[in-house]
Amino acid sequence: MATPTQQSTSESAVAEEAEEKSVKEAAALSPKLIYEVIRRDGEEELARSKFSLMWSGIAAGMLISLSVLGEAILRTHLPDTPYRFLIENLGYSLGFLAVILSRMQLFTENTITTVLPVMHARTWHALGCMLRLWGIVLSANVVGAFAAAALFVFTPAIPGELMPAIEELSRHATGMTAGEGFWRAIPAGIIVALIVWMLPQADETAFFIILTFTWLIAAGDFTHIVAGSVEMAVLVLQGQLGFGPAVLGFFLPVLMGNIVGGTLIFTLVAWGQVRDDIEASEKV
Length: 284
Hints:
Elements: H1 4-26, H2 31-47, H3 50-63, H4 65-77, H5 84-88, H6 93-101, H7 110-113, H8 115-121, H9 124-154, H10 163-174, H11 178-198, H12 206-219, H13 225-238, H14 243-283
Helix pairs in contact: 2-8, 3-9, 4-6, 4-10, 6-12, 9-13, 10-13, 11-12, 11-14, 13-14
Protein backbone atom coordinates (compact mmCIF):
# COMPACT_ATOMS: atom_id res chain seq x y z
CA MET A 1 0.00 0.00 0.00
CA ALA A 2 1.38 3.40 -1.05
CA THR A 3 2.30 5.89 1.62
CA PRO A 4 0.85 9.45 1.51
CA THR A 5 4.24 10.71 0.28
CA GLN A 6 4.40 8.14 -2.53
CA GLN A 7 0.80 8.85 -3.51
CA SER A 8 1.50 12.58 -3.61
CA THR A 9 4.59 12.01 -5.77
CA SER A 10 2.60 9.80 -8.14
CA GLU A 11 -0.20 12.36 -8.46
CA SER A 12 2.38 15.09 -9.10
CA ALA A 13 3.99 13.02 -11.86
CA VAL A 14 0.61 12.39 -13.48
CA ALA A 15 -0.22 16.08 -13.30
CA GLU A 16 3.11 17.03 -14.86
CA GLU A 17 2.62 14.47 -17.64
CA ALA A 18 -0.88 15.80 -18.33
CA GLU A 19 0.45 19.35 -18.38
CA GLU A 20 3.24 18.42 -20.78
CA LYS A 21 0.75 16.70 -23.06
CA SER A 22 -1.48 19.77 -23.04
CA VAL A 23 1.46 22.03 -23.92
CA LYS A 24 2.48 19.75 -26.79
CA GLU A 25 -1.06 19.64 -28.15
CA ALA A 26 -1.46 23.40 -27.85
CA ALA A 27 1.87 24.19 -29.47
CA ALA A 28 1.84 24.76 -33.22
CA LEU A 29 3.53 22.15 -35.34
CA SER A 30 6.96 23.20 -36.53
CA PRO A 31 7.51 23.65 -40.28
CA LYS A 32 9.63 20.48 -40.24
CA LEU A 33 6.79 18.43 -38.75
CA ILE A 34 4.24 19.89 -41.18
CA TYR A 35 6.59 19.01 -44.01
CA GLU A 36 6.93 15.47 -42.70
CA VAL A 37 3.15 14.99 -42.39
CA ILE A 38 2.55 16.17 -45.96
CA ARG A 39 5.50 14.19 -47.32
CA ARG A 40 4.25 10.94 -45.80
CA ASP A 41 0.75 11.67 -47.07
CA GLY A 42 2.26 12.21 -50.51
CA GLU A 43 4.11 8.90 -50.35
CA GLU A 44 0.85 7.15 -49.54
CA GLU A 45 -0.82 8.80 -52.53
CA LEU A 46 2.05 7.82 -54.83
CA ALA A 47 1.69 4.20 -53.69
CA ARG A 48 -2.03 3.98 -54.53
CA SER A 49 -3.16 1.97 -57.53
CA LYS A 50 -4.02 3.77 -60.75
CA PHE A 51 -7.63 2.59 -60.55
CA SER A 52 -7.99 3.99 -57.03
CA LEU A 53 -6.54 7.31 -58.17
CA MET A 54 -8.74 7.36 -61.26
CA TRP A 55 -12.05 6.81 -59.47
CA SER A 56 -11.14 9.22 -56.69
CA GLY A 57 -10.18 11.82 -59.30
CA ILE A 58 -13.42 11.35 -61.24
CA ALA A 59 -15.43 11.77 -58.03
CA ALA A 60 -13.48 14.95 -57.22
CA GLY A 61 -14.12 16.35 -60.70
CA MET A 62 -17.83 15.73 -60.32
CA LEU A 63 -18.10 17.10 -56.79
CA ILE A 64 -16.10 20.24 -57.57
CA SER A 65 -19.09 21.21 -59.74
CA LEU A 66 -20.80 22.12 -56.45
CA SER A 67 -18.63 25.24 -56.55
CA VAL A 68 -20.22 26.34 -59.81
CA LEU A 69 -23.68 25.27 -58.70
CA GLY A 70 -23.44 26.94 -55.30
CA GLU A 71 -22.24 30.21 -56.79
CA ALA A 72 -24.99 30.10 -59.43
CA ILE A 73 -27.70 29.51 -56.80
CA LEU A 74 -26.57 32.50 -54.74
CA ARG A 75 -26.24 34.72 -57.82
CA THR A 76 -29.73 33.77 -58.98
CA HIS A 77 -31.52 34.35 -55.70
CA LEU A 78 -29.61 37.16 -54.00
CA PRO A 79 -30.77 40.74 -54.63
CA ASP A 80 -28.64 42.71 -57.06
CA THR A 81 -26.59 44.77 -54.62
CA PRO A 82 -22.97 46.03 -54.70
CA TYR A 83 -21.93 43.42 -52.13
CA ARG A 84 -23.69 40.45 -53.77
CA PHE A 85 -20.44 39.46 -55.48
CA LEU A 86 -18.71 38.86 -52.14
CA ILE A 87 -21.59 36.79 -50.73
CA GLU A 88 -22.23 34.67 -53.82
CA ASN A 89 -18.59 33.61 -53.88
CA LEU A 90 -19.17 31.68 -50.67
CA GLY A 91 -20.90 29.16 -52.91
CA TYR A 92 -17.59 28.57 -54.66
CA SER A 93 -16.23 26.98 -51.49
CA LEU A 94 -18.81 24.16 -51.48
CA GLY A 95 -17.06 21.96 -54.01
CA PHE A 96 -13.68 22.35 -52.34
CA LEU A 97 -15.14 21.55 -48.93
CA ALA A 98 -16.70 18.37 -50.32
CA VAL A 99 -13.55 17.25 -52.13
CA ILE A 100 -10.88 18.14 -49.56
CA LEU A 101 -12.75 16.96 -46.46
CA SER A 102 -13.64 13.72 -48.28
CA ARG A 103 -9.93 13.29 -49.15
CA MET A 104 -10.60 12.84 -52.85
CA GLN A 105 -7.94 13.39 -55.48
CA LEU A 106 -7.82 17.01 -56.60
CA PHE A 107 -5.00 17.85 -59.00
CA THR A 108 -4.03 21.17 -57.45
CA GLU A 109 -3.53 19.58 -54.01
CA ASN A 110 -0.97 17.29 -55.59
CA THR A 111 1.16 20.23 -56.73
CA ILE A 112 2.55 20.18 -53.18
CA THR A 113 1.54 16.83 -51.61
CA THR A 114 3.28 14.60 -54.13
CA VAL A 115 6.11 17.02 -54.89
CA LEU A 116 7.62 16.90 -51.38
CA PRO A 117 8.43 13.15 -51.61
CA VAL A 118 10.18 13.81 -54.93
CA MET A 119 12.25 16.62 -53.42
CA HIS A 120 13.12 14.29 -50.55
CA ALA A 121 14.10 11.30 -52.69
CA ARG A 122 15.59 13.25 -55.63
CA THR A 123 15.45 10.29 -58.02
CA TRP A 124 14.11 9.90 -61.55
CA HIS A 125 11.87 7.09 -60.33
CA ALA A 126 10.20 9.38 -57.79
CA LEU A 127 9.72 12.05 -60.47
CA GLY A 128 8.19 9.48 -62.81
CA CYS A 129 5.77 8.33 -60.09
CA MET A 130 4.73 11.92 -59.46
CA LEU A 131 4.12 12.64 -63.16
CA ARG A 132 2.15 9.39 -63.46
CA LEU A 133 -0.09 10.44 -60.57
CA TRP A 134 -0.49 13.96 -61.99
CA GLY A 135 -1.54 12.58 -65.37
CA ILE A 136 -4.06 10.13 -63.90
CA VAL A 137 -5.59 12.59 -61.44
CA LEU A 138 -5.81 15.52 -63.87
CA SER A 139 -7.39 13.36 -66.57
CA ALA A 140 -9.85 11.90 -64.07
CA ASN A 141 -10.72 15.36 -62.73
CA VAL A 142 -11.50 16.54 -66.26
CA VAL A 143 -13.65 13.46 -66.97
CA GLY A 144 -15.58 14.13 -63.77
CA ALA A 145 -15.95 17.80 -64.66
CA PHE A 146 -17.39 16.94 -68.09
CA ALA A 147 -19.74 14.40 -66.51
CA ALA A 148 -21.09 17.05 -64.14
CA ALA A 149 -21.37 19.58 -66.96
CA ALA A 150 -23.29 17.04 -69.07
CA LEU A 151 -25.71 16.65 -66.17
CA PHE A 152 -26.21 20.42 -66.11
CA VAL A 153 -26.64 20.80 -69.87
CA PHE A 154 -28.44 17.66 -71.09
CA THR A 155 -30.77 16.74 -68.21
CA PRO A 156 -33.43 18.54 -66.15
CA ALA A 157 -31.46 17.80 -62.97
CA ILE A 158 -30.66 21.51 -62.59
CA PRO A 159 -33.61 23.96 -62.40
CA GLY A 160 -33.87 26.02 -65.55
CA GLU A 161 -33.63 29.32 -63.71
CA LEU A 162 -30.07 28.47 -62.63
CA MET A 163 -28.66 27.86 -66.11
CA PRO A 164 -28.31 31.55 -67.09
CA ALA A 165 -26.13 32.12 -64.01
CA ILE A 166 -24.08 28.98 -64.72
CA GLU A 167 -23.53 30.11 -68.30
CA GLU A 168 -22.64 33.63 -67.19
CA LEU A 169 -20.10 32.32 -64.69
CA SER A 170 -18.69 29.97 -67.33
CA ARG A 171 -18.27 32.71 -69.93
CA HIS A 172 -16.50 34.91 -67.39
CA ALA A 173 -14.13 32.15 -66.26
CA THR A 174 -13.12 31.17 -69.79
CA GLY A 175 -13.33 34.63 -71.35
CA MET A 176 -9.90 35.83 -70.21
CA THR A 177 -6.94 35.91 -72.53
CA ALA A 178 -4.47 33.04 -72.22
CA GLY A 179 -1.94 35.32 -70.54
CA GLU A 180 -4.46 36.66 -68.05
CA GLY A 181 -5.69 33.16 -67.25
CA PHE A 182 -2.10 32.03 -66.61
CA TRP A 183 -1.22 34.87 -64.27
CA ARG A 184 -4.50 34.64 -62.33
CA ALA A 185 -3.94 30.91 -61.89
CA ILE A 186 -0.68 31.47 -59.99
CA PRO A 187 -2.34 32.93 -56.85
CA ALA A 188 -4.93 30.13 -56.94
CA GLY A 189 -2.16 27.52 -57.01
CA ILE A 190 -0.44 29.21 -54.07
CA ILE A 191 -3.69 29.38 -52.07
CA VAL A 192 -4.52 25.69 -52.56
CA ALA A 193 -0.97 24.70 -51.58
CA LEU A 194 -1.29 26.97 -48.53
CA ILE A 195 -4.50 25.17 -47.53
CA VAL A 196 -2.71 21.82 -47.75
CA TRP A 197 0.16 23.21 -45.65
CA MET A 198 -2.21 24.49 -42.94
CA LEU A 199 -4.48 21.44 -42.65
CA PRO A 200 -2.14 19.17 -40.59
CA GLN A 201 -2.55 21.47 -37.58
CA ALA A 202 -6.05 22.72 -38.36
CA ASP A 203 -8.13 20.07 -36.52
CA GLU A 204 -11.61 21.51 -35.93
CA THR A 205 -10.79 24.71 -37.85
CA ALA A 206 -10.24 22.84 -41.14
CA PHE A 207 -13.75 23.68 -42.36
CA PHE A 208 -13.22 27.40 -41.88
CA ILE A 209 -9.74 27.37 -43.40
CA ILE A 210 -11.02 25.72 -46.59
CA LEU A 211 -14.11 27.96 -46.66
CA THR A 212 -12.14 31.19 -46.23
CA PHE A 213 -9.27 30.55 -48.59
CA THR A 214 -11.29 29.02 -51.42
CA TRP A 215 -13.69 31.97 -51.08
CA LEU A 216 -10.61 34.13 -51.62
CA ILE A 217 -9.92 32.35 -54.92
CA ALA A 218 -13.38 33.27 -56.19
CA ALA A 219 -13.51 36.74 -54.66
CA GLY A 220 -10.07 37.52 -56.08
CA ASP A 221 -11.23 36.34 -59.51
CA PHE A 222 -8.37 33.83 -59.71
CA THR A 223 -8.52 30.77 -61.97
CA HIS A 224 -8.54 27.12 -60.88
CA ILE A 225 -8.03 24.34 -63.40
CA VAL A 226 -10.51 21.79 -62.03
CA ALA A 227 -13.39 24.07 -61.00
CA GLY A 228 -12.77 25.99 -64.22
CA SER A 229 -12.95 22.76 -66.22
CA VAL A 230 -16.61 22.41 -65.20
CA GLU A 231 -17.31 25.89 -66.57
CA MET A 232 -15.27 25.17 -69.68
CA ALA A 233 -17.13 21.89 -70.21
CA VAL A 234 -20.53 23.59 -69.94
CA LEU A 235 -19.70 25.92 -72.83
CA VAL A 236 -18.03 23.19 -74.91
CA LEU A 237 -21.04 20.89 -74.59
CA GLN A 238 -23.38 23.74 -75.49
CA GLY A 239 -21.30 24.59 -78.56
CA GLN A 240 -20.46 28.07 -77.26
CA LEU A 241 -16.73 27.31 -76.99
CA GLY A 242 -14.62 25.41 -79.49
CA PHE A 243 -12.23 22.65 -78.48
CA GLY A 244 -9.14 24.53 -79.65
CA PRO A 245 -9.86 27.80 -77.81
CA ALA A 246 -10.91 25.79 -74.74
CA VAL A 247 -7.60 23.91 -74.58
CA LEU A 248 -5.18 26.57 -75.79
CA GLY A 249 -6.94 29.66 -74.49
CA PHE A 250 -8.07 28.37 -71.10
CA PHE A 251 -7.06 24.87 -70.02
CA LEU A 252 -3.30 24.84 -70.67
CA PRO A 253 -2.57 28.40 -69.46
CA VAL A 254 -4.54 27.90 -66.24
CA LEU A 255 -2.96 24.47 -65.70
CA MET A 256 0.53 25.92 -66.03
CA GLY A 257 -0.32 28.83 -63.74
CA ASN A 258 -1.63 26.54 -61.01
CA ILE A 259 1.52 24.39 -61.26
CA VAL A 260 3.78 27.44 -61.09
CA GLY A 261 1.92 28.78 -58.06
CA GLY A 262 1.55 25.51 -56.19
CA THR A 263 4.89 23.90 -57.02
CA LEU A 264 7.50 26.35 -58.26
CA ILE A 265 6.58 29.08 -55.80
CA PHE A 266 4.90 27.74 -52.66
CA THR A 267 6.44 24.27 -52.48
CA LEU A 268 9.98 25.52 -53.13
CA VAL A 269 9.55 28.20 -50.46
CA ALA A 270 8.15 25.61 -48.03
CA TRP A 271 11.06 23.27 -48.82
CA GLY A 272 13.54 26.09 -48.36
CA GLN A 273 12.51 26.74 -44.78
CA VAL A 274 12.93 23.10 -43.73
CA ARG A 275 15.77 21.99 -46.01
CA ASP A 276 18.61 22.59 -43.53
CA ASP A 277 16.73 20.83 -40.72
CA ILE A 278 15.90 17.84 -42.93
CA GLU A 279 19.44 17.47 -44.25
CA ALA A 280 20.90 17.86 -40.77
CA SER A 281 18.64 15.12 -39.37
CA GLU A 282 19.58 12.81 -42.26
CA LYS A 283 23.27 13.16 -41.43
CA VAL A 284 22.73 12.14 -37.81
